[in-house]
């Protein structure tokens, strides 16, 4: 492209449109990459607020000769949407304009997220047929650009198959309405708009001129996604709208889309088929397809092995049968019995045809959800081998006709063996499309040369089988160069002509499909960040001690961008801004290491500001498929950012970071301290401490838990042995009644409780405020106090989930290799975990009633809640665990000045309304001090600890 004046374009856009225009380093760094192996720094980042803005942005870009790339959820795995003027349509152009159940259609803006459309359609018993695993963040515009398919494409087709019509703006600026031929009215130009000079006629002429070529090479099977869908140019089949599906934004820009909706089956069951190897699973496809399944998805043992242990355990319990390769086959029916009978018929046919096949019919929706989670998380899980080695996209999307899938997989295995590659696979077996991540060496010249050779030879293999180098994700930078190799020079020349008709200036997403960059150019692994070894306080044991390797965990799949459900990422769920997603923060940290756009390293204000609204909830540690841990990275960054500059720190780092030390000083004069903090001096104290003026300063208990325990006379048999109660700051100084309740429960269960012989602290308040040097000193002293108990193997029961999680995760990482820290990690348990493991015969009191339980986000991420839920049910309590995510207070976060509004918005998403809706007879359970405080500040209810609930039931 010809150089243009970026600053002048930015000024014109700000003057003439309402779009948000960003030329700053932070915004550009956020959009340098997507979910692919590629990195291209954008010239500008533009977020249009409405359709008029989008049209105006494109007009100005044409006038300046600027290349433009549309971006939806940023989940492109082939590098489809990078560089130039990046226009993010997901932020504002995300309205569902209409859902019409009568015609079973919906009209949407291009930034609408698929899961939102599915939810809206579901209220009418309908859904959108194409449903990729990225549905919680994939936008309809992006799905049109890639002709996305998804798990149900075997039954309901691709995005193109479900398209009713498009409203688009061509590369030359012509606005068109393009109904599909099965929609009355036919294609035409919008009233009042200048007609494009023969655009539709020129396209039809291309179809006639190249009819023989097109009939021979295009539209040969459903997953032929590579290149342009030239079959839609043929006489009698002309369909300009569907031609744009899969064109990756290189021909026109979608302004609105009308899509068909399909009725949801009355009942669905999941048939899980197990096979001894991949080839056997592939050979089974031909025996399953005639039965008309709704889905046929694969996962392999390598992928299952990479699941978190609790998820893997639930998957086995949900019905995953024996095997090393599985097909998830969804079967519909008029009733559950009909669906189950159809599934059993498929299972019998498969087991008759394939030696060693196993089967399980799963009817429970919760169990089905667990198994589908294994498949949905495959994109991220496959990025790390079990030994920690990294694996990458690049050849993750090829497809062949389903009846040749076995040949393809055997040939691919041979080819991978020649190069010494390995990878985890998953995919759409019913459509002959295989996804995988392979452990390419993309860091060295020799490794990249092997990668290129492998892709070329794999392309030849796929072409020999009548397949497509892309079966869903599009060509992008990863495969556009292979389009000529796949289709031949004559077909490629046709692509050039199609591009010229729609986009004569070549400004829409240049270098994709036509005039591609080499597939080994612009690799994001080749910059200086890969070699940058920075001194860190955390040890990063799962990343070879490398902060850079830790940042590479984020491959951009964007699960953190989901707007509802799970804990990750609470700030994004409120703001919807890329910089507040887990992915955005990880990308900024990587760009900090690159040093090209963000140039001031640990002192970066761009990174600091993006991390400021991270709640350190650790939701990403559990919910991210590759265990990105922004809470730890934030602590590390904050430590270095303020190193040797204590005056630059927020005041809250001293008032709340040093809370354990201050509480110890305040406890002897608790009454006086409480009187002062509740007096007219409170606003001044809050300002001095950097505390939000809307928050109440928690009151100290008149007597600490330690003081009470010193006078406590043990009771019970002690048959279960000794146990060490961790006297965390919150329990000891603010809520000693929880400690007293825990002692009663433990003694009733046969334990003899003890407290450490000296002061101990998990250091979390110093860790979360990035005061890691102090945290390490505190932890070493605490480990010394614990040493006698740790060496005897005495279990440690934590009552505050954040402190227990710190012992299990942060402490051993921060003290890297310390034997006592490792022992503390292995011995630390929640109250429910200890009872389940060491006192399984204990019968809890029959408390009864109902309860609403808020799971502390650190417990969700590190410890799990299954044992707590089981204990509550064993106590006769009907417990509801809402999908509320983080409470919003999150330790010091919600108390800090400037964070109150976001903190409350996070709580108001689910938790606080749920608490208000609950009846007075429903108990509120929240083990976390932050969760209880947020509930008290935001509602009229008081939440209690599990230990208190159980202790109340003891005689």
Low-pLDDT regions: 185-192
Question: Could you describe the largest sheet, including whether it forms a barrel?
Answer: 6 strands, antiparallel
- Mean pLDDT across every amino acid position: 93
How are the strands ordered across the major sheet? 5-6-11-8-9-10
Describe the global form: globular
Secondary-structure-based class equals alpha/beta
Cα-atom radius of gyration? 29 Å
- Number of alpha- plus pi-helical segments: 44
List the helices and strands and how they pair.
Blueprint lengths: L5 H11 L3 E3 L2 H6 L13 E4 L3 H14 L3 E4 L13 E4 L7 E5 L4 E4 L5 H9 L3 E2 L12 H7 L6 H4 L6 E8 L4 E5 L8 E2 L9 H11 L1 H7 L22 H5 L7 E9 L1 E2 L3 E9 L2 H11 L8 E4 H5 L3 H10 L6 E9 L2 H18 L4 E5 L2 H12 L1 H4 L23 H15 L3 E6 L4 E6 L6 H20 L11 H4 L3 H5 L1 H14 L44 H5 L18 H6 L6 H13 L10 H8 L6 H5 L6 H12 L10 H4 L3 H8 L3 H8 L4 H8 L15 H6 L10 E6 L2 H6 L1 H13 L2 E4 L9 H5 L3 H21 L3 E3 L2 H14 L4 H9 E3 H8 L11 E5 L2 H7 L2 H9 L3 E3 L19 H10 L1 H7 L5 E4 L2 H10 L7 H7 L3
Helix pairs in contact: 1-3, 7-20, 10-16, 12-14, 16-17, 23-24, 33-44, 35-37, 36-37, 36-39
């Amino acid at each position: 492209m010809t150089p243009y004046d970026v600053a002048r374009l930015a000024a014109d856009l700000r003057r003439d449109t309402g779009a948000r225009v960003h030329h700053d380093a932070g915004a550009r760094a956020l959009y340098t990459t997507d979910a692919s192996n590629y990195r291209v720094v954008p010239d500008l980042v533009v977020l249009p607020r409405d359709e008029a803005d989008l049209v105006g942005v494109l007009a100005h870009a044409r006038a300046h000769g600027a290349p433009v790339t549309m971006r939806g959820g940023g989940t492109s795995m082939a590098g489809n949407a990078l560089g130039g003027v990046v226009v993010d349509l997901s932020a504002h152009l995300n309205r569902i304009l209409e859902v019409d159940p009568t015609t079973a259609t919906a009209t949407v803006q291009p930034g609408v997220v698929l899961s939102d459309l599915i939810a809206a359609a579901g209220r009418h018993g309908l859904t959108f047929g194409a449903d990729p695993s990225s549905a919680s963040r994939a936008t309809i515009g992006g799905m049109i650009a890639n002709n996305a398919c998804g798990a149900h494409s075997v039954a309901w087709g691709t995005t193109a198959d479900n398209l009713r019509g498009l409203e688009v703006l061509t590369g030359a600026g012509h606005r068109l309405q393009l109904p599909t031929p099965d929609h009355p009215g036919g294609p035409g130009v919008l009233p009042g708009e200048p007609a494009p000079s023969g655009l539709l006629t020129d396209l039809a002429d291309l179809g006639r001129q190249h009819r023989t070529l097109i009939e021979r090479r295009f539209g040969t099977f459903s997953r032929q996604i590579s290149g342009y869908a030239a079959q839609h140019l043929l006489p009698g089949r002309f369909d300009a709208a569907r031609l744009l599906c899969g064109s990756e934004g290189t021909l026109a820009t979608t302004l609105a889309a009308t899509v068909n909706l399909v009725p949801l089956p009355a009942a669905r069951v999941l048939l899980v088929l197990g096979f001894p190897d991949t080839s056997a699973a592939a050979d089974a496809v031909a025996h399953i397809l005639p039965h008309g399944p709704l889905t046929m998805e694969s996962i392999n043992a390598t992928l299952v092995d990479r699941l978190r242990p609790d998820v893997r355990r639930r998957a086995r319990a949900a019905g995953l049968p024996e095997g090393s390769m599985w097909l998830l086959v969804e079967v519909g029916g008029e009733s559950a019995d009909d669906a189950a009978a159809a599934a059993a018929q498929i299972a019998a046919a498969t087991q008759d045809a394939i030696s060693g096949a196993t089967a399980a019919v799963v009817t429970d929706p919760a169990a089905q959800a667990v198994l589908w989670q294994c498949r949905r998380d495959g994109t991220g899980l496959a990025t790390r081998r079990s030994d920690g080695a990294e694996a990458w996209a690049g050849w993750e999307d090829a497809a062949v006709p389903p009846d040749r899938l076995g040949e393809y997989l055997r040939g691919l295995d041979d080819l991978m063996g020649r190069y010494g590659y390995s990878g985890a696979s998953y995919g759409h077996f019913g459509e002959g499309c295989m996804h995988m991540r392979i452990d390419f060496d993309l860091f060295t010249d020799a490794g990249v040369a092997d990668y290129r050779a492998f892709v070329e030879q794999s392309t030849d293999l796929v072409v020999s089988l009548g397949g497509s180098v892309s079966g869903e994700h599009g060509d992008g930078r990863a495969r556009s160069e292979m389009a000529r190799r796949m289709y031949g020079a004559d077909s490629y020349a046709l692509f050039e002509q199609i591009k010229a008709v729609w986009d004569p200036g070549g400004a829409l997403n240049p270098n994709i499909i036509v005039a591609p960059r080499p597939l080994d150019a612009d690799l994001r692994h080749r910059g200086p960040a890969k070699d940058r070894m920075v001194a860190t306080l955390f040890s990063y044991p799962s990343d070879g001690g490398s902060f850079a390797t830790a940042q590479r965990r984020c491959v951009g799949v964007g699960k953190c961008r989901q707007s509802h459900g799970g804990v990750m990422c609470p700030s994004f769920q409120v703001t919807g801004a890329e910089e507040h997603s887990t992915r955005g923060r990880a990308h900024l940290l990587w760009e900090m290491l690159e040093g090209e756009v963000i140039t001031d390293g640990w002192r970066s204000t761009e990174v600091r500001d993006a991390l400021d609204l991270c709640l350190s909830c650790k939701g990403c540690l559990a919910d991210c498929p590759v265990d990105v841990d922004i809470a730890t990275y934030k602590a590390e960054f904050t430590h270095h950012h303020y190193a040797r500059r204590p005056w630059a720190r927020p005041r809250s780092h001293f008032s709340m970071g040093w809370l354990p030390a201050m509480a110890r000083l305040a406890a002897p004069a608790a009454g006086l301290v409480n009187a002062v903090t509740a007096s007219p001096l409170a606003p001044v104290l809050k300002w001095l401490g950097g505390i939000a003026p809307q928050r109440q300063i928690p009151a100290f208990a008149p007597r600490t838990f330690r003081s009470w325990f010193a006078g406590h006379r043990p009771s019970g048999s002690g048959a279960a042995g000794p146990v060490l109660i961790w006297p965390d700051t919150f329990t000891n100084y603010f809520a000693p009644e929880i400690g007293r309740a825990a002692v009663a429960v433990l003694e009733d269960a046969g334990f003899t409780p003890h407290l450490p012989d000296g002061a101990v602290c998990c250091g979390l308040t110093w860790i979360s405020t990035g005061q890691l040097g102090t945290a390490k000193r505190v932890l070493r002293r605490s480990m010394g106090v614990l040493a006698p108990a740790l060496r005897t193997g005495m279990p440690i029961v934590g009552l505050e989930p954040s402190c227990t999680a710190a012992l299990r995760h942060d402490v051993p990482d921060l003290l890297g290799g310390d034997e006592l820290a490792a022992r503390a990690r292995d011995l630390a348990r929640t109250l429910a975990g200890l009872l389940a493991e060491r006192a399984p015969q204990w019968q809890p009191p029959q408390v009864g009633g109902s309860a609403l339980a808020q799971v502390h986000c650190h417990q969700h991420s590190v410890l799990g809640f299954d044992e707590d839920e089981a204990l509550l049910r064993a106590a006769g309590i009907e417990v509801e665990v809402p999908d509320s995510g983080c409470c919003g207070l999150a330790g010091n976060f919600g108390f800090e000045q400037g964070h109150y509004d976001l903190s409350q918005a996070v709580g108001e998403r689910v938790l606080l309304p749920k608490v208000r809706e609950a009846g007075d007879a429903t108990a509120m359970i929240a083990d976390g001090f932050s969760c209880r405080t947020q509930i008290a500040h935001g509602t009229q209810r008081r939440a209690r600890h599990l230990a208190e609930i159980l202790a109340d039931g003891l005689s």
